[in-house]
Amino acid sequence: MEIAMFVYEFPPRIVGGLGTYAMEISQQFIRMGHDVTVFTMNDGNLPIRDVWQGVEVHRPITTDISETFPSLLPPDVRRFGRGMRFFSDVFVYNILSVSTLVNELLKEERRFDVVAGHDWLSIVGAVAAKQAMKKPLVFHVHSTEKGRTMGGGSRTIEHLEYRGGHEADLIVTVSHAMRDELAGMSFPADRLRVCWNGVDPSKYDSAKVDKERVQRLREKYKITPDEIMILHVGRLTPVKGADRLVQAMPHVLKSNPRAKLVILGVGDMDKYLAELIKSLNLENVVTLNLQFVPEDERILHYAACDLAAFPSIYEPFGIVSLEAMSMGKPVVVGARGISGMREQIIPSGPDQCGFHVNPLEPSDIAWGINCTLSDPSALKRLGENARKRVLEYFTWEKVAQNTIGVYEELLAK
């Protein structure tokens, strides 16, 4: 089939998990024999039209309308302040993208089978494309504004998500927890489908990482071979739980005095975390690496750690936990509320690969970490089970097959 994909991030411009998803899923679609045309953002330095590893990519250059845009918007969006430029760029990107499709590609007699729009960032253009071509629309919801902001976000963005759900012929989301969230927000329950995200286990493989590089990284963080390295990777925002992970460390140290924590990421909580670490006298225990590192460096961090901890309050899926699992590492995850990571991690039995914890309670986070560290032989078994589970359920090939199955279900109607 021929797929028109509207997605805000796409290589070489990747900011977070959405860009990784778009890159991986489009490549799998191409390998399966489908055609993919992507409409994505342009930072002004990228070609307007090119082919990226078999994917046709359109990147219209946006013009700045942020000075006049506020007069058209409700108060909650006007309060974005400096973020108004971002919101206006998103709006212009959507309009220019669907204009490119209608005024250029359709005149070239392109015949698309399905439109795929990803999150609120691209839904305006995707809905317009559906209406222009009279083709079915699949709305991929990776997270919600309400969940990301813990209820304090933009009502306008919430409305865009809601309208996208009702305009779409099918809605694909990333976990059963997220499906339940959307159903509770009055998205049409009969149109909701779940397709988990994935990881590339051939890339995320500890056996392929240079052991000398691993040793040097641990030395960089002043972690000796007989010490335990706990790793947290993610944006430094309240929903990711890095602050409660820091607060859990005094409890961890009571049972595991040689444990150390490395936090890798960027975000608005950096200064708060530094102050928290100092107030708890953890300067020699917790290290902040406040940078966005390339993928090979992230893989090296996973290889160097003994376990990974992601006590998110809200996590529709959580690709970072899959990355750690694929690297053969046990994972401690927040499992309360909307948690796709709860579906990844088996917390007990012969297939156990980690622990579920209450992400709001530092003592419970510490309990999960201490249980993981209680038996060195169990630590190895948990890691082996983690990689085994990835290979069975969470490869990008399986994700693509499931997603195409949803598209085929829609076209069959």
Features:
alpha/beta, Rossmann fold, 8-stranded mixed β-sheet, 6-stranded parallel β-sheet, 14 strands, globular
Tell me the series of helices and strands, N- to C-terminal: EHEEEHHEHEHHEHEHEHEHEHEHEHEHHH
**What Rg do the Cα atoms give?**
22 Å
Strand-residue proportion: 15-25%
Q: Give the oligomeric state of the chains in this entry, treating copies of one chain as homo and distinct chains as hetero.
A: single chain
Helix share, percent? 40-55%
Order the strands across the largest sheet as they lie in space: 3-4-2-1-5-6-7-8
Number of helices: 16
Quickly give the structural class.
alpha/beta
- What summary fits the major beta sheet? 8 strands, mixed
The total domain count is 2
Q: Could you tell me the number of beta strands?
A: 14
Enter the CATH topology name of the largest domain.
Rossmann fold
What is the name of the CATH architecture of the largest domain?
3-Layer(aba) Sandwich
What's the pLDDT, averaged over the residues?
A: 94
Q: How far is it from the N-terminal to the C-terminal residue, by CA? A: 15 Å
Q: For the record, what is the CATH homologous superfamily label of the largest domain?
A: Glycogen Phosphorylase B
Any idea of the CATH class of the largest domain? Alpha Beta
